[in-house]
Amino acid sequence: MKSNSIRFLCVTIVILAAGCVRSLNPLYSDEVIEFDPSLVGTWSDGSDYWRFEKEGDNAYKVTNGDDEEDDTPGVFKGVLVRLGEHRFLDLFPDAESIEGGNEFYQFHFLPSHTFMKIKGSETNLVMLLMDLDWLEEEFEKNPDEVPCVIIEDTPILAGESQALQAFVLKHAETPGAFGGKNPDETGLPRVQEPAGGEEAPD
């Protein structure tokens, strides 16, 4: 990927592959999953693109690639999670696309989950990854706050889903936890509507 800022649907995902927090377990459990049809479609900043397609009753097939370079896109299962007043997206690499994929996709092996905080509205939505530098500092200060394993000097979240939910909700507004110290919250418009005439929510 050329850019550390990945934008879609007036959505910005701030991404540094080396700075993503990984988790061995999902953030979601049945009672906190929700589906927002307004995410379905394709969004691009002219170099990176993200495509959301409905998958099953309450998940997304999420494809991320480069509009300009001929690389193999990464394909993920995406699940939207609501915790209190906040929403998050859990991404996990698609098992059928385990070989190949772009840099962000390959970063997930282990296979691992990454979490993104969603803010804003249908017309101006921001998505921010949990920040690795922040987690390393938090883990040093509070090593028992959430279970982690250390792989190549990097903390990997290892708690069960309920423990992860409590940890993520606790730090939903903590400065630096999502998007780093200087999060980019700009956005770009949707570039393609959902196929099949799917209606947007009221």
Let me know the average pLDDT. 78
Radius of gyration of CA atoms, rounded to a whole number: 16 Å
Major sheet: size, sense and barrel closure? 11 strands, mixed
H/E element order:
EEEEEEEEHEEHEEHE
Overall structural domain count: 1
Task: Work out the helix count.
Answer: 3
- The percent of residues in helical segments reads 10-25%
Which strand-content bin applies to the residues?
25-35%
Q: Low-confidence parts lasting 5 or more residues at pLDDT below 50?
A: 1-18, 197-202
Shape from CA axes? globular
What structural class do the secondary elements suggest? mainly beta
What gap, in angstroms, lies between the N and C termini? 35 Å
Number of strands: 13
Key attributes of the depicted protein:
eleven-stranded mixed β-sheet; disordered C terminus; 3 helices; 202 residues
Q: Please, could you describe this protein's structure?
A:
The chain is mainly beta and 202 residues long. The protein has one domain. 12% of the residues lie in helices and 34% in strands. The longest helix has 10 residues, at 132-141. It starts with a strand and ends in a 10-residue tail after the last strand. The model is unreliable at 1-18 and 197-202 (pLDDT under 50).
